């Protein structure tokens, strides 16, 4: 049972960058808001994020080819324009002295990647910058400050994007927490175990401790842990929402030998279903080295040896002296990845229950934008109607043809081999490619003969994900005319 009078106007489940940002926007409006989440954030993507303010640096050829991909880029661009004011407000309402830590981004194209991924990605970044008329500067790779790779990983090209910075994620989370409480918000160190519905509307949540919080609205910003909280919904609604799985990412916090760190982010284009190899400067001689991406049905808190090997081998692409540096911390986070690869924003069709999650690698960067939009939706105010396409109860968004999805699966899997610096006889890669194409093609057909999932959803051979895809597709088959 819940109280007759709600304890809160809004309960936000999830205390990562998105949940805290939404709580802060609502608290600044004078609402009674509770943000619920464990203080140690064991699974959160935000706590382990490199936190690049990546807009154009994240662009890929496939992103620019689809309507929904271009909308995602437009969202990133709008979010970039909000960060100056957002950071200033956080500094004024917290004890932090700085939140962003990098002056611009250097994108490098080096000899480790492959043409279809790295070269085409580098070109796509330039094309998007030109389209948006954003400034960038071609650099001589040999003159990029701090960058000193091994000769076998030397960059072929480099460009500097002055408008793309980075965020110190721990400082951001501290600032958001402080600003939220100073505006009257309540932080609850617990987890939401159940959303409570009465008479077809959300009326509160039950915490894992057994405590009940009543509220006029419940917003789920619980990332990769969201899907289990939707068990409160009728089955015909729940199955029409793409489940969220975990894009488990591993990164390293490294202390350089001489205490010198780059002034800017240094990164490659996106690679192998991840955000490329990147170094993000932090304070006190520390750099963030990231990041891997493994799409899994379960949340993860540990790193595989292979993931660590990939990151450690990548140090030679950035600075050959990093072999002597010290790993101070291994970080693991779980990016929220919906089955169709696009965010879940808005009402779930049950009054008072909202989703603000599924942002994959964009949530922290987009947090000022999405928090404002979601607050407007909750309050019944004008909002960005273009984002309505990401309503949670929706047919699958298919941003690729079957041929494109299969081709991307093959190319990026092969590309990861070159990232691992494999050494093979010259006639083996074509044979391996043939094997991957046949194996992935069979899996794609077994998942569904008509709908097209993103390649991340079928290359990792997670049968739980495949089963979730089949359930989701079946719920929409009749309505889609298939």
TrEMBL record:
The keyword Ribosomal protein does not apply. InterPro entries: FAD-dep_OxRdtase, FAD/NAD-bd_sf. It holds the Pfam family DAO. GO terms for cellular component: cytoplasm. Residues 9-376 form the FAD dependent oxidoreductase domain. One of its GO terms (molecular function) is oxidoreductase activity. Keywords: Oxidoreductase. Gene3D superfamilies: D-Amino Acid Oxidase, subunit A, domain 2, FAD/NAD(P)-binding domain. This is Formimidoyl fortimicin A synthetase.
């Amino acid at each position: 049972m819940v109280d007759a009078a709600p304890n809160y106007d809004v309960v936000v489940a999830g205390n990562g960058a998105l949940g805290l940002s939404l709580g802060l926007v609502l608290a600044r409006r004078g609402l009674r808001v509770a943000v619920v989440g464990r203080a140690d954030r064991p699974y959160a993507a935000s706590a382990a994020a490199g936190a690049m303010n990546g807009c154009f640096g994240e662009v890929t050829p496939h992103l620019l080819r689809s309507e929904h991909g271009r909308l995602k880029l437009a969202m990133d661009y709008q979010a970039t324009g909000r960060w100056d004011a957002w950071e200033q407000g956080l500094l004024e309402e917290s004890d932090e002295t700085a939140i962003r830590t990098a002056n611009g981004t250097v994108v490098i194209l080096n000899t480790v990647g492959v043409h279809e991924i790295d070269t085409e990605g580098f070109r796509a970044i330039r094309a998007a910058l030109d389209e948006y008329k954003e400034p960038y500067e071609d650099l001589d790779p040999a003159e990029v400050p701090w960058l000193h790779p091994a000769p076998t990983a030397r960059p072929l090209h480099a460009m500097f994007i002055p408008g793309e910075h980075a965020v110190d994620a721990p400082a951001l989370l501290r600032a958001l927490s402080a600003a939220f409480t100073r505006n009257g918000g309540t932080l609850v160190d617990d987890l939401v175990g159940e959303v409570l519905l009465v008479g077809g509307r959300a009326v509160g949540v039950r915490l894992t401790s057994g405590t009940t919080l009543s509220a006029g609205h419940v917003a789920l910003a619980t990332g990769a842990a969201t899907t289990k909280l939707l068990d409160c919904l009728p089955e015909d609604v729940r199955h029409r929402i793409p489940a969220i799985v975990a894009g488990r990412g591993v990164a390293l916090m490294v202390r350089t030998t001489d205490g010198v760190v780059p002034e800017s982010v240094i990164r490659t284009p996106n690679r192998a279903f991840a955000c490329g190899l990147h170094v993000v400067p932090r304070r006190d001689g520390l750099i963030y080295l990231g990041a891997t991406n493994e799409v899994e049905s379960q949340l993860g808190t540990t790193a595989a040896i292979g993931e660590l090997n990939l990151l450690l081998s990548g140090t030679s692409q950035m600075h050959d002296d990093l072999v002597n540096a010290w790993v101070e911390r291994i970080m693991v986070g779980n990016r929220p990845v919906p089955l169709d690869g696009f965010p879940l924003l808005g009402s779930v069709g049950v009054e008072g229950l909202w989703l603000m999650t599924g942002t994959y690698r964009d949530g922290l960067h987009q947090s000022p934008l999405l928090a404002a939009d979601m607050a407007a939706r909750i309050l019944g105010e004008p909002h960005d109607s273009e984002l309505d396409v990401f309503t949670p109860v929706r047919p699958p968004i298919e941003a690729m043809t079957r041929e494109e999805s299969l081709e991307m699966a093959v190319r990026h899997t092969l590309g990861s081999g070159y990232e691992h610096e494999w050494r093979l006889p010259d006639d083996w890669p074509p044979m391996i490619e043939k094997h991957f194409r046949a194996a992935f093609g069979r899996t794609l057909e077994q998942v569904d003969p008509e709908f097209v999932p993103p390649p991340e959803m079928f290359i990792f051979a997670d049968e739980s994900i495949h089963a979730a895809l089949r359930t989701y597709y079946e719920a929409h088959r009749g309505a889609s005319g298939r």
